[in-house]
Every structure is written in structure tokens, then in C-alpha cells.
Amino acid sequence: MQQIPVASTEVLLVSFDLSHGEDKNICIVGKKDGDKGAITIVNAFEGQKAVDIFKLLTTVQTKQEEKKEE
Fold first, then answer.
1. How far apart (Å, rounded) are the C-alpha atoms in residues 35 and 41?
2. Predicted structure pTM score
3. Contact 18, 51 (CB under 8 A)
4. Domains of the chain by residue range
5. For residues 33 and 12, is the Cβ–Cβ distance under 8 A?
6. How many CB atoms lie within 10 A of CB 29?
7. CB-based burial of residue 16 (10 Å sphere; 0-12 exposed, 13-18 middle, 19+ buried)?
8. How many CA atoms lie within 13 A of 33 on its CB side?
């Protein structure tokens, strides 16, 4: 498996399409290339994995909940 180089200050763009049924859910991760505005796809996830990533990125945890997990 190859890792795409991403600088620690670089912005990643995440896009979800969860509207076409469970088997067709998709999450796409990209990054902007320089000043030209082109986007390079870094990774893509399908199905339940896309849903799991969506939930992970959009669920807010309170400080109390974070302490319980430790």
C-alpha cells in the first residue's frame, strides 16, 4: 500500500455521497495541488467504511465522553 505525501499544513478535502443506497455509499479524500486548483484524489472508501468515516468526522464528543473512553 502506497501513502500519498501530504504536508502537515496541507488541507485535505473530504466528500461524501450517502444518498444512493448502502452499497453505493462513497467517501472521497483529495488534496489541492499547488496554485492551479487541481485536485488529486488521495483515497476513496465505499459502503459501510464510507458511512463509518462520515460518522467519525461528524459526531461531536463532549469532554465528559472523551474522559470515559480513556
1. 16
2. 0.71
3. yes
4. 1-57
5. no
6. 17
7. middle
8. 7
User: Using CA atoms, how far apart are residues 47 and 22, in angstroms rounded to an integer?
Assistant: 6
Nearest to 29, CA basis, from 39, 17, 18, 43: 43
* pLDDT tens digits, one per residue of 28-59: 999 887 777 788 899 999 999 999 999 999 99
The least confident of 15-19, 57-61, 64-68 is: 64-68
What single letter denotes the amino acid at residue 60? V
Dihedral sign (CA 43, 47, 52, 57): positive
* Higher local confidence (pLDDT), 57 or 2: 57
Q: Coil, helix or strand for 55?
A: helix
